[in-house]
UniProtKB/TrEMBL annotation, chain A:
Name of the protein: Acetolactate synthase small subunit
Protein's UniProt keywords contain Amino-acid biosynthesis: yes
Pfam families given in the database record: ACT_AHAS_ss, ALS_ss_C
Entry similarity comment: Belongs to the acetolactate synthase small subunit family.
Pathway involvement of the protein, from the record: Amino-acid biosynthesis; L-valine biosynthesis; L-valine from pyruvate: step 1/4; Amino-acid biosynthesis; L-isoleucine biosynthesis; L-isoleucine from 2-oxobutanoate: step 1/4
Keywords: Amino-acid biosynthesis, Branched-chain amino acid biosynthesis, Transferase
UniProt organism field: Paracraurococcus ruber
Domain of life: Bacteria
Automatic annotation (TrEMBL), chain B:
Catalytic activity entry: 2 pyruvate + H(+) = (2S)-2-acetolactate + CO2
UniProt organism field: Paracraurococcus ruber
SUPFAM superfamilies cross-referenced by the UniProt entry: DHS-like NAD/FAD-binding domain (SSF52467), Thiamin diphosphate-binding fold (THDP-binding) (SSF52518)
InterPro entries tied to this protein: Acetolactate_synth_lsu, AHAS_TPP, DHS-like_NAD/FAD-binding_dom, THDP-binding, Thiamin_PyroP_enz_cen_dom, Thiamin_PyroP_enz_TPP-bd_dom, TPP_enz, TPP_enzyme_TPP-bd
Protein name listed in UniProt: Acetolactate synthase
Superkingdom of this protein's organism: Bacteria
Cofactor: Mg(2+); thiamine diphosphate
Pathway: Amino-acid biosynthesis; L-valine biosynthesis; L-valine from pyruvate: step 1/4; Amino-acid biosynthesis; L-isoleucine biosynthesis; L-isoleucine from 2-oxobutanoate: step 1/4
Group of enzyme by EC: transferase
Domain spans labelled Thiamine pyrophosphate enzyme central: 208-344
Length: 174, 601
């Protein structure tokens, strides 16, 4: 039972299985903006063979009471099949992918490649003065790599936002 | 959905092919629709053409699309059926938005069919194009844009399912003109469950047992019942009465719940909240166990949240899980339909072996009777100037004497609160008011919808002179359909509630709240083919009311009331239930409005 006097914020990674229909993303985003909830990251893509269902992963933050409210509000949207708070419901995996462009020559370029190797980032594009790395991992690992690239010649970052799934045999529609 | 297309329902050899407009009307008929409220325009001409060629569905032509939605709300609230609206694209749809939000806030089942430009023009800024699904997404429970005629019938059926199941609400179906003209298959409502929307109606047995155990052990219990009980159907109100009487507990109703429990019953404490009774609010503040059934801890009810009923265990039964633990943390959450919850609680109460503490309950009633002794709704009517409270009270008493089935609608403001305080309701579905959104202009069109549903009943819109002007054009609709609605205006020449707040919170600076240049309501009524009555002296009030009630057609009764009267009791914004302001002359004094309270509405 959430305690209204508990004002400490927590992060929540919420997986939402929805009908893959026009306007569903607007409904979810509108719910967050209309009710003043945070969205730290949001990803969406169809996930079944008929492309009838999409899975939305939302990272949000709030007090326990607010996060309970977010889940209840999501759950009452008509095209929503299932809402799952992965943060609460046992261990889960959360990953993000990014493409990061670094510009530089000489020693900087060598340093970037060395660090990329240490972080298991792959080179997916290279010119004589630029590199694009592809990297997957938890958000803080991506953050750390970006911080390291900044003094070397960070040019541009594109991140997918978090996708997440529960560990073990259970599924969202168990 | 595709399954229903492939297997035609029994009784039909094949899916019948019809135009989109015919499909819509057939689906409405199959859903039991008898009347729709609407206003034509370019994008919906095919639907109006199909309407012209049939007799099963009656169309009521309103004068403004907002009024069409309020009329459908009045129809829905007074019958328990889904109200249906038909408007054109662009301005037709945008005008309907206020009504849709009103229905959303008050959980009223409404289907609003909106015209749309043809699919190939959508997004081109075509004439009378608006992004209706975009605009109405936060204004509805759900909405649809039909772009494939094969899905038209199933969409209309689904819209009805969504609108009336779970917590009811408005649903928009946006219909491009080419879809209405094109031909496609008609399919009946599917018998299979909805793919994703399956609200829980049956309460969890353990939650019911926990709730009953808490209530049985209570020394100072209270039942706080809201609009959810009304929405659950008349049987739920009957069960509420049964439960309250078998348990001996006091019962209060929210503004939306009035009529769920009979107002003349001795266990009824009146309405609670900002303008609720002293006894209801103090009982809420002082109770040890609270049963909230079908209400949502609205800010008008709770007052300052951190001082709301501080010592109580709270049980909240609601069909909408998102209403539970939203504003107020509760100890027992019961998700379910109010009627099913009450039936289960009555059963569990009988099963539970624990004895009630009848002695403590008797002490609680002595305390409540002491609060009742304040007579917080007392007023003094003396002299010729009509007190607005007196006008409502006499209206109530005279209509009771007549014994006619009476339905009351209101606009929004002081008159609304006086109506809630001084007009008593013995049954559900007799009281239609805009609670959540607080929409001035609601009452007249809502009354229209009620009168359409109940042609022989007495339907009265208790109004203020400012609110009534917000949808006054509907007098034309009353005239056209000979709807004998009575408009009872408490005319104090002010937007009274605005004036009251300015007096209490803004140093009596009456900024823009005076109703200047008012029309002559008698002549206005006459120009709309109605009877106009004006009463200015208390000694003429009863005769004026009787004349209004005796007239077989629509009437505007313009009752000139005291201009400076305020609505009491009152919990000022930001105050707690035990910090009520009573009327001047009653003990209790004026609590200060805090700066925090001032920013609240």
């Amino acid at each position: 039972m959430p305690d209204p006097t508990d004002t400490s914020y927590r992060n929540a990674t919420i997986a939402v299985l929805v009908e893959n229909e026009a306007g569903i993303l607007a409904r979810v985003v509108g719910l967050f903006s209309g009710r003043g909830y945070n969205i730290e990251s949001l990803t969406v893509a169809p996930v079944d063979e008929n492309r009838r269902l999409s899975r939305i992963t939302i990272v949000t933050s709030g007090t326990d009471m607010v996060i309970e409210q977010i889940k209840a509000q999501l759950d009452r949207l008509v095209p929503v099949h299932k809402v799952s708070d992965l943060t609460l419901e046992g261990p889960h995996l959360a990953r993000e992918m990014m493409l990061i462009k670094v510009v530089g020559k000489g020693e900087n370029r060598m340093e970037a490649l060395r660090l990329a190797d240490a972080f298991r980032a792959r080179v997916v594009d290279a010119t004589t003065e630029s590199l694009v790395f592809e990297m997957t991992g938890a958000g803080d690992k991506l953050d750390a790599f970006i911080d390291l690239m900044r003094p070397i010649g960070l040019k541009e970052v594109s991140r997918t936002g978090v996708v997440a799934i529960a560990r073990g045999a259970g599924g969202l529609l168990a | 959905m595709s399954a229903t297309l492939q297997t035609p329902p029994q009784g039909h050899e094949t899916a019948r092919t019809m135009t989109g407009a015919e499909i819509v009307l057939q689906a409405l008929k199959d859903q039991g629709v008898e009347v729709i409220f609407g206003y034509p325009g370019g994008a919906v001409l095919p639907l109006y053409d199909a309407l012209f060629q049939q007799n099963a569905i009656r169309h009521i032509l309103v004068r403004h699309e907002q009024a069409a939605v309020h009329a459908a709300e009045g129809y829905a609230r007074s019958t328990g059926k889904v109200g249906v609206v038909l408007v054109t694209s662009g301005p037709g749809a945008t005008n309907a938005v206020t009504g849709l939000v009103d229905a959303l806030m008050d959980s009223i089942p409404v289907i609003c069919l909106t015209g749309q430009v043809p699919t190939h023009l959508i997004g081109n800024d075509a004439f009378q194009e608006a992004d209706t699904t975009g605009i109405t997404r936060p204004a509805t429970k759900h909405n649809y844009l039909v772009k494939d005629i094969r899905k038209l019938a199933s969409t209309v059926h689904e819209a009805f399912y969504v609108s009336k199941n779970g917590r009811p609400g408005p649903v928009v179906i946006d219909l491009p003109k080419d879809i209405l003209i094109g031909k496609g298959p008609y399919t009946e409502a599917p018998q299979t469950p909805h793919r994703s929307y399956r609200p829980q109606t049956e309460p969890d047995a353990r939650a019911i047992r926990d709730a009953v155990a808490l209530l049985k052990g209570a020394k100072r219990p209270i039942v706080y019942a809201g609009g959810g009980v009304i929405n659950a159907g008349p049987e739920a109100s009957r069960l509420l009465g049964e439960f309250v009487r078998m348990t001996g507990m006091p019962c209060t109703n929210t503004l939306m719940g009035l009529g769920a429990y009979p107002s003349t019953d001795p266990q009824f404490l009146g309405m609670l909240g900002m303008h609720g009774t002293y006894e209801a609010n103090l009982a809420m503040h002082g109770c040890d166990v609270m049963l909230n059934i079908g209400a949502r801890f609205d800010d008008r009810v709770t007052g300052r949240l951190n001082a709301f009923s501080p010592g109580s265990k709270k049980i909240h039964a609601d069909i909408d899980p998102s209403s539970i633990n939203k504003n107020v943390k509760v100890d027992v959450a019961v998700v379910g339909d109010a009627g099913r919850v009450l039936a289960a609680m009555i059963e569990a109460w009988k099963q539970d072996g624990q004895q009630q503490d009848r002695g403590a309950l008797a002490g609680w009633w002595r305390q409540i009777d002491e609060w009742r002794g304040k007579s917080c709704l007392h007023y003094v009517q003396e002299g010729s100037i009509i007190k607005p409270q007196h006008a409502v009270k006499r209206l109530y008493e005279i209509t009771r004497e007549m014994g006619r089935d009476t339905f009351i609608t209101t606009e929004v403001g002081q008159h609304q609160m006086w109506a809630a305080q001084y007009f008593g309701f013995e049954q559900p579905n007799r009281w239609m008011t805009s609670g959540g959104l607080g929409t001035m202009g609601y009452g007249l069109p809502a009354a229209m919808g009620v009168q359409i549903a109940h042609p022989d009943a007495l339907v009265i819109d208790i109004a203020g002179e400012a609110s009534i002007l917000m949808n006054i054009q509907e007098m034309g609709t009353l005239a056209q359909y000979r709807l004998p609605v009575k408009v009872f205006i408490l005319n104090n020449e002010y937007m009274g509630m605005v004036r009251q707040w300015q007096e209490l919170l803004h140093g009596s600076r009456y900024s823009e709240s005076y109703s200047a240049a008012l029309p002559d309501f008698v002549k206005l009524a006459e120009s709309f083919h109605a009877r106009g009555i004006r009463v200015t002296r208390a000694e003429d009030l009863d005769a004026g009311i009787r004349e209004m009630l005796a007239h077989p057609g629509p009437v505007i009764a313009d009752i000139a009331v005291a201009k400076d009267e305020n609505c009491f009791p009152m919990i000022p914004s930001g105050a707690a239930h035990n910090e009520m302001i009573l009327a001047p002359g009653q003990t209790g004094g004026v609590a200060g409005v805090t700066d925090e309270g001032k920013v609240l509405v």
